[in-house]
Amino acid sequence: MSSSPDTLTAKGEATRARLLEAARASMLETGGLLEVAGVAQRADVSQGLLYRYFESKDGLVGAVVHAFYDSYDAAVFAASLAPGSTWQARERLRLAWEIDFLCDDPLGRLIVGRRLLEPAAFQADRERLAVQIDLAARNVARGQSSGEVDRSIDARLVAAAFLGAFRELMAEALHRDEEPDRALLLDIVWRVGASIIPDAS
Question: What is the pLDDT of residue 1?
C-alpha cells in the first residue's frame, strides 16, 4: 500500500517530494515517458522505496500530474483577484494568469499539449479537468448572482464548453515548437468566452 502524504513524517514528505521532482524531471527529459528505475536512481532511492510511496508506476505518474494541477489551481483559481473589480475584469486577469502558467511550466507542454505518453496521465488529467469545470461553473454562477452574466444559461454546461475550447486552443499553441504569442491567445480565448458566456446586457 502506498503512503498517504497526510501520514508521512517530515523525512517521508521530503523523500516523496524528491521522488516527485525526479519523476517530473525524467518525464521532461524523455518527452513524456517515465522509467521507474531511472526515477529511483535520480532520487537516490531503491525501487522498492519508490513503490512504498506510490505503489506503482501509474501511481507515480498520476501523482506528478496531480502535483502539476495543484500548482495550476493555486496559481489561477485560488489566486486573489482585485476586490471591487467587475466580473469580466477579474476573469480576463485570471485567463492571463492561466495562459502564463501553462506557457511557463514545462509540464504544460506535455500535459495540456498532449505530449504525455503515459496512460495514467490521461486519467489524472480527466479527473482534474472535471474539478476545473466545477470551479468554473461556480465562478459563472457568481457572475450570474452579481447580475453580470446572463442568468438564463446553464453555468456548468457553459463552463464545460468554455474550458473545452480553452484546452483545445492551448493544446494547439503548446504543441507547436515556437513560443506562443500570449497576448494573441488571450484575445482569441476572450472572444470565444464572450460568445459562450454572454453578459447580462
Answer: 44
